[in-house]
Amino acid sequence: MNAANTTAVVTEPPVLRIAPPHGWWEVDFHELWQFRELIYFFVWRDIKVRYKQTAIGAAWAILQPALAMIVFALFFGKLAHMPTEGLPILVFYYSGLLPWMYFSNSLTNATSTIVQNQNIITKVYFPRLALPISAVLSGLLDFAIGCLLLVPLMVVYRVRPGLPLLLLPVFLLLTVLMAAGAGLWLSAMNAIYRDVRYVVPFLVQFWLFASPVAYASSIVPAKYRWLYGLNPMAGIIEGFRWSLTGRGDPPGPMIIVSVAVVLVVLASGLFYFQKMESTVADVV
Amino acid sequence: MTDAVIRVEGIGKRYRVGQRQSYRALRDVLAGAFRRSGKRAPTDFIWAVRDVSFEVKQGEVVGLIGRNGAGKSTLLKLLARITRPTVGHAELHGRIGSLLEVGTGFHPELTGRENIFLSGAILGMSKQEILRKFDEIVAFSEVERFLDTPLKHYSSGMGMRLAFAVAAHLEPEILLVDEVLSVGDASFQKKCLGKMQDVSRAGRTIIFVSHQMNAIRRLCQRVLWIDEGHIRVDASSHEAVGAYETAMARGSRDKSQASRGSASRTRFASWRIAKPDGEDPHTLRSLDPVTIRIALEVQRPITKAWHGMALYNHEQQLMWAWASQKLPLDVGEYALCHTFPMLPLRPGSYTWLVTLYDESNNQVDSWYCEPEMIVAAESYQAPIDQWTGILNLPSNFEVKAGAIPLAHPGNEHSELDEPTQKGVNSRP
Fold first, then answer.
1. What is the pLDDT of residue B41?
2. Which residues of chain A does B91 touch, with a Cβ-Cβ cutoff of 8 Å?
3. Alpha-carbon A64 to chain mean position
4. Do both B117 and B14 map to the same domain?
5. Which residue of A2, A21, A49 is in closest CB contact with B203?
6. Do B84 and A18 touch (CB under 8 A)?
7. What is the pLDDT of residues A195-237, one digit of tens each?
8. B269 and B387 in one domain?
């Protein structure tokens, strides 16, 4: 019991102003930063629950891309003879599948995060952005574990990365930003239209084949490659593979277009999400 | 110098009527866009909260009462920032803790230990704070042995204790509580109430929504009665709760003036409090002797009838029950008169139940008397209503000097001459 509570407050308590939504841009990054610990806890929770529920736990983070790599390598690489930019087949596919798996898993997780967490959204306040953000961040651990297989693969096949490796973090960041942007759109839409999450598997599948995961973007004629870049994952996957292995085209018009699309998707996703946010507790 | 920590001005929340129904499906929206139907159902709006303004000073415990759907929970949600107002605004000074349910954030797959961190973080505690209070929380919850078992293996009682232990260690300046006391068994509710009293004594501001008037009376000095989205009464808890209870009782009584079916069998027809004509025959206004008269119409003679009577309060608790000796009843009309030296009942609504059995123990009639009996607020004895029990007892209190004589065997009177300084029954 603190009798001093009733006397003048020494430190200024936080003042909260509650008002109807106004204006069209109300994203509060400062507040999001204040809630960073909560984002950490959400990520921690998602990872823990995911690993507790699977019998093989963390091994899944490697198995998923590895199994896909084997199937792709066999059917696309060996049997269909898709060009792999001169890279050993396994390295080619794995280096593309790794960021792709992160992206598609993040999309799936982000889509249903608002609805899955409706029991806390309707009871406690926190910036709702924390949910899709943590869904996107929680996939990074799986990504990191998946990288563990990448290193021995590259060693065995004697693929040595060069200077472009310095740009790898940039492409990783782009992947995260794209996952965030698309995740924001999907989580907001799913909160309002509940059937969106049934569309997502089809979306992801379609997107996979539209991206240079199963094949190299070199199959697209050079003058159309910038158009191909309108699929942001095209630039990201290519760039990721290039920075990792040094093979393939260095960043060009395709990647520049992709980066622009990523930023547009992210900004519009933030905008749409925060528009939805003010009503989410009412409809969820 | 206490200043207003909560200031609400003209706040209102409007919902679209269809909004609470099943979610929209994208395919329906898209299909609808293609359909060229010119008619569009006009969207209906409902104001859950409208034009609410009030101020709360630091350390005040304010209760929100009202019927279901009156807007209390919506108002609390607005203050907790869970939903945004349509109009108006509010200012809150201090950290806000919202206790709208017990077990917010718990995940069944995680262990008790992990859930403490998760729930604490969601409720607004920092990791440091949780670490600091971890042992206290575990001790309060009494689930130490099972701390590392997944929550899905906990019994519901254990889960609730753990959830409440976490919530109880929240230390916000402003605490918003919504009916958490209606959850759990009696000892748990007592613990919750006790903890909330500690919180209020520590100088924190609490806004408390509940249907349990007992709890409201015990905790709150000030009560807002919310009715249809507006503040109907903003007064001391005694006044506001009294007004609310009287209005509720009157409402239920007005609804039930229906007749009692065919008159060709033995039945109880009506009841009244014996009073001078012109006075309300179903309202009790004092603690004087009172006679309850039940009208009975007997169509078939009964040689040895049993007559039973019982009194229930509005929560269906049995207050008193009684059965008569065997009565001989011939065909005709009777007035069964029950006289009480007083009925020490708290203001509110009560229902008499009267029954009649014949010589072979078959039930002839059983009737929950309508309308209900109202005990009016002016019958109430205690001048200040911070504490209420079930009984409304008149008592005299006096202090006499001198020691209390011990009762020896052989003493004719063991009468207490000198009551001790502490009055037992009544509060000054």
1. 57
2. 15-18
3. 16
4. yes
5. A2
6. yes
7. 888 989 999 999 999 999 988 888 888 888 888 888 999 999 9
8. yes
How do strand B283-284 and strand B373-375 relate by DSSP bridges? parallel
Contact assignment for A6 to B203 by CB distance below 8 Å = yes
Residue B424 lies in a domain: yes
**CA contacts within 13 A on the Cβ side of A257:** 14
**ipTM > 0.95, yes or no:** no
Q: Looking at the domain assignment, is residue B375 inside a domain?
A: yes
**CA–CA distances in Å: residue B385 to residues B61, B199, B326, B350:** 15, 21, 43, 20
What CATH number is attached to the domain comprising B100?
A: 3.40.50.300
Query: Which of A5, A13, A37 has the CB atom closest to B126's CB atom?
Result: A37
Closest CA to B58 of B199, B180, B191: B199
Nearest to B19 among A5, A196, A283 (CB): A283
Q: How do residues B19-75 score in pLDDT, each as one tens digit? A: 444 556 766 666 666 665 544 555 678 888 999 999 999 888 999 998 888 889 899
Each residue's pLDDT tens digit, B142-171: 888 999 999 999 988 888 888 888 888 888
Residue with more model confidence, A103 or B288: A103
Instruction: Pick from A16, A31, A119, A202 the residue to mutate for testing the B interface (most B CBs within 10 Å).
Output: A16
B33 found inside a domain: no
- Report the SS3 class of residue B335: strand
Task: Give the whole-angstrom CA distance, residue A180 versus residue A122.
Answer: 23
pLDDT at A123 over 70: yes
Q: Which domain holds residue B270?
A: 258-428
Cβ within 8 Å, pair A123-B98? yes
Q: Distance, in angstroms, between A255 CA and closest chain B CA?
A: 33
Q: What pLDDT sits at residue B33?
A: 66
